[in-house]
Design a protein that fits this description.
With 98 residues, the chain is mainly α. The chain is 84% helix and 0% strand. Residues 1-22 form the signal peptide.
Length: 98
């Protein structure tokens, strides 16, 4: 019985997650590109980008994406749920976070 409940709960969570991403197809594509960037970049590249980007204005597309995430808490949550683990893992591997 417990095994069946676990399976049902997992399926429900998968459906909810799938629905959240289907609701925001553009956000889903942006999140995929962010994940791909972190997975394909070397630690040296990430450190260089961080150093070069400090104090620089963000590109207009990035500003619009940030504004959309600020205005829609559900989309923001879906975005962070998708990108957090891959980004944090890469940052940890590169020594960017303790």
């Amino acid at each position: 019985m417990t095994k069946q409940l676990t399976i049902i709960a997992a399926l429900a969570a998968t459906l909810v997650a799938g629905t959240a991403h289907a609701q925001y197809p553009i956000m889903d594509r942006v999140a995929s590109k962010v994940i791909e960037k972190y997975q394909t970049s070397s630690c040296q590249q990430l450190w260089q980008e961080k150093a070069q980007g400090q104090g620089q204005p963000k590109p207009e597309m990035e500003q619009r994406a940030i504004q959309a995430l600020q205005q829609d808490p559900q989309m923001r949550q879906a975005f962070f749920n998708k990108v957090s683990a891959p980004i944090v893992n890469k940052m940890f591997e590169c020594g960017m976070i303790p």
